[in-house]
């Protein structure tokens, strides 16, 4: 078995890398995710809603997985229309 290797041209980035495009793409979906977290974390135990609020307000890597999931879903939806 053999394969051809085709080098892809490398383009220098024009601006520093930014998460702004994925943040804007997933903003409404992330608002829905936050609403679900808040809705499902209601409890008579005060610590549980406090933890939910911490997850939402904290951002960071705990928010990356749902953001990537939403971006992937958006990608599939756009490809399905081609």
Task: Please write out the topology.
Blueprint: H1 20-40, H2 47-58, H3 61-80
Helix pairs in contact: 1-3
Describe this structure in words.
By secondary structure, the protein is mainly α. The protein has a domain of 53 residues. The chain is built from three helices and no strands. Helix 1 crosses helix 3. The chain starts with 19 loop residues before the first helix and ends with a helix.
A few lines on this structure:
With 82 residues, the chain is mostly helical.
Key traits:
82 residues; 65% helix; mainly alpha
Beta fraction: under 5%
Supply the helix-strand structural class. mainly alpha
Number of helices: 3
Task: Report the end-to-end length measured between terminal Cα atoms.
Answer: 33 Å
Uncertain stretches? none
Round the Cα radius of gyration to an integer and report it.
19 Å
User: What pattern of helices and strands is seen along the backbone?
Assistant: HHH
State the total count of DSSP E strands.
0
Arithmetic mean of pLDDT: 81
Main sheet overview: none
Query: What share of residues is helical?
Result: 55-70%
> What shape does the CA trace take?
elongated
């Amino acid at each position: 078995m053999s394969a051809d290797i085709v080098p892809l041209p490398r383009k220098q980035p024009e601006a520093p890398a930014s998460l702004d495009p994925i943040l804007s793409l997933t903003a409404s979906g992330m608002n829905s995710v936050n609403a679900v977290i808040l809705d499902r974390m209601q409890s008579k135990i005060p610590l549980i809603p406090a933890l939910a609020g911490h997850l939402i307000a904290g951002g960071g890597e705990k928010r990356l997985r749902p953001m990537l999931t939403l971006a992937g879903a958006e990608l599939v939806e756009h490809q399905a229309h081609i």
